[in-house]
Amino acid sequence: MFPVNLLPLRTLPSTAVGQYFTLVRSLTCGVSRLGKKAEQLESEEPAAEDLPVTFVDDDAESTDDREARIAAIRNKSRLLPQHRNMLQGVLPYEQSQSWIHETVKYKRMMLGRYGINGSRVDPRVCFPTKKEAYEKAEYERVAFPFSLKQMMDANEVERKARMAAIEAREAEVARKLEKLDQWTTDLNARIAKKEAEARAAKERKDRLVEEVRRHFGFKVDPRDERFQEMLALKEREDRKKVKEAKRKEKEEKMMEKLQKKTAQLEVGESEATSEQSK
Prior knowledge:
Elements: H1 14-43, H2 63-74, H3 81-87, H4 104-119, H5 130-143, H6 148-178, H7 180-216, H8 225-277
Helix pairs in contact: 7-8
């Protein structure tokens, strides 16, 4: 017999064996899923919208379905259904989509915009409930406590008072305009008097300075102390003279008044004696 040489067996690690069986199982699952998907596609029939126009059976399709399919084909705007409805002037939503759509304010707005038939809203929502009517009446009672007649009377009284104030103001302005000429004359007189007093004061100052210079007999600096002392002396003397002149003028005026009053008294006494003699 010939000797038989046996090949050595190669042993694989356990991790490699596990990875190999996992790969085989995933491939098997993928093949089975593909088979099921192909069977499902074969069993399903394509919808009428998905088929070209030439493959659609018009006899098997109802009129409503055909119109809906044509409308869907025509819609190229890519707008949302609610926006397209608003653009076409119909109710945006067939059913309420939010709690806002159930509010009275929203329903009233839809009724006013799309009408009774277009909005599908009961028109009775436009009328206030008993509670709303009571609250409105209470608000009007508090906010407007006076009646229309009372408000009209108050407005008339206020208007008359306003007109009286305007008339009084106009009368005052007219009265002051009448005195405007006199006020202008008085103002000009006061201005002229002040200017005359200023000129007289300047002339008096110049005269005193000239008298001081003549007193010294030579030219002296006005800032010199002797010049300032003599100038102050001359000013005091001049003020005394002015004061004395004013006193004499006042005495003369008083004497004139006394003489006039005495003459009037003498005339009155003479008239009284003449009447008594008669």
